[in-house]
């Protein structure tokens, strides 16, 4: 009878796993805790060694799920800057020094004997800047070259709610092509369509060419307009920034400085990708449209003469 009672108790115990929240929002360079807790019903009189595995599925379309941490009792193996919370029943994943490409779905699996329960949490970087990179076939590489990543739909949608109004269709991380419209007009679907984020659906990553929405959540260093004694071609602009202990700013860095630090200049300058742009936070006469934004003169021939925006690395 005693053995039968013990067996019945073990079979009747149920393992539960819960994340408490579906998403966690953080910023680049910061920390994040991905919640995951587990408990038993009925409650156990003493703790048991369980196997906890965290895996990660990147946001980008086509990404492969990989393990980031595995523990069994007091033994653990990590694949990066990860650790578990050290509390009974708490399997939260603690992440430090977050990078742009750390976004995605994090899956917490708890195994106790034959019991196997799991839950998932999504890591999102808070929207600080979103910009459009001109037409590319390989969007991932284009954003990385600007110190950023492909934007997710959530990030694009948040920017649309904040007033983003672009008629250019661009790639998103899920492989779709979309664009945000707050003011319907003829060239952008017509006046008959309501404001919103318009979608072309999924497109072939290698056969189709569109712009790309890139995203970054922080700026480390300073972007500034180098006031030259004379206008410069692209080669001279690169040399001028180097002589000033800096480098020619990237598109993403200029957008970050405009959005995060309020950089405002009516002077057009070279950027690292060969484009010429200038940031406006206080619209005024002779400085482009009436809305704030980063104005672009496109990609003029490199021998043309302009100013330059430089970037000097430093603390965030």
What descriptive keywords fit this protein?
alpha+beta; elongated; disordered N terminus
Polypeptide structure, described:
InterPro entries: C-type_lectin-like/link_sf, CTDL_fold, Hyaluronan_bind_Proteoglycan, Ig-like_dom, Ig-like_dom_sf, Ig-like_fold, Ig_sub, Ig_V-set. Residues 29-128 form the Ig-like domain. One of its GO terms (biological process) is positive regulation of neuroblast proliferation. Disulfide bonds join 167-188, 241-310, 266-287. Mean pLDDT is 83; it is low at 1-10. The termini are far apart. A 6-stranded mixed beta sheet has the order 2-11-10-5-6-7, with no helix packed on it. It is built from 5 helices and 23 strands. It is elongated, with a radius of gyration of 25 Å. The chain has helices at residues 2-12, 139-145, 153-161, 234-243, 251-261, and strands spanning 14-18, 23-26, 32-34, 37-41, 51-58, 66-72, 75-78, 82-84, 93-95, 104-112, 115-125, 129-136, 149-150, 170-171, 176-181, 196-202, 210-216, 222-226, 247-248, 269-270, 276-280, 293-296, 307-312.
Residue share in helices?
Answer: 10-25%
Kindly report the average pLDDT value. Answer: 83
Q: Give me the strand/helix succession.
A: HEEEEEEEEEEEEHEHEEEEEHEHEEEE
Total helix count? 5
Give the class from helix and strand content and strand pairing: alpha+beta
* Morphology call: elongated
Widest sheet: strand ordering:
2-11-10-5-6-7
> How many runs of DSSP E, i.e. beta strands?
23
| Radius of gyration of CA atoms, rounded to a whole number | 25 Å
Give the biggest sheet: 6 strands, mixed
The oligomerization state is single chain
Q: Could you list the spans in which at least 5 consecutive residues all have pLDDT below 50? A: 1-10
> End-to-end span in angstroms?
67 Å
> In percent terms, what proportion of residues is strand?
35-45%
């Amino acid at each position: 009878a005693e053995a039968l009672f013990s067996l019945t108790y073990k079979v009747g115990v149920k393992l539960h796993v819960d994340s408490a929240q579906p998403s966690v929002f953080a910023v680049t360079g910061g920390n994040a805790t991905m919640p995951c807790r587990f408990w038993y019903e009925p409650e156990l009189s003493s703790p048991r060694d369980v196997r906890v595995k965290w895996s990660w599925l990147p946001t980008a379309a086509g990404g492969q799920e990989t393990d980031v941490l595995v523990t069994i009792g007091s033994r653990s193996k990590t694949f990066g800057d990860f650790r578990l919370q050290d509390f009974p029943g708490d399997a939260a994943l603690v992440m430090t020094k977050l990078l742009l490409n750390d976004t995605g779905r994090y899956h917490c699996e708890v195994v106790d004997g034959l019991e196997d329960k799991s839950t998932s949490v999504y890591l999102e970087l808070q929207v600080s800047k979103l910009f459009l990179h001109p037409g590319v076939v390989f969007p991932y590489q284009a954003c990385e070259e600007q110190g950023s990543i492909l934007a997710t739909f959530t990030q694009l949608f948040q920017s649309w709610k904040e007033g983003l109004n672009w008629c250019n269709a661009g790639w998103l991380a899920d492989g779709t092509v979309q664009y945000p419209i707050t003011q319907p007009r003829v060239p952008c679907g017509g006046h008959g369509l309501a404001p919103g984020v318009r979608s072309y659906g999924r497109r072939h990553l290698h056969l189709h060419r569109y712009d790309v929405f890139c995203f970054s959540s922080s700026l480390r260093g300073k972007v500034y307009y180098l006031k030259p004694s004379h206008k410069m071609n692209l080669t001279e602009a690169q040399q001028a920034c180097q002589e000033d202990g800096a480098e020619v700013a990237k598109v993403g860095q200029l957008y970050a400085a405009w959005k995060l630090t309020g950089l405002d200049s009516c002077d057009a300058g070279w950027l690292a990708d060969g484009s010429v742009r200038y940031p406006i936070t206080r619209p005024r006469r002779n400085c482009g449209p009436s809305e704030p934004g980063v104005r672009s003169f496109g990609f003029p021939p490199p021998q043309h003469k302009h100013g330059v925006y430089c970037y000097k690395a430093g603390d965030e």
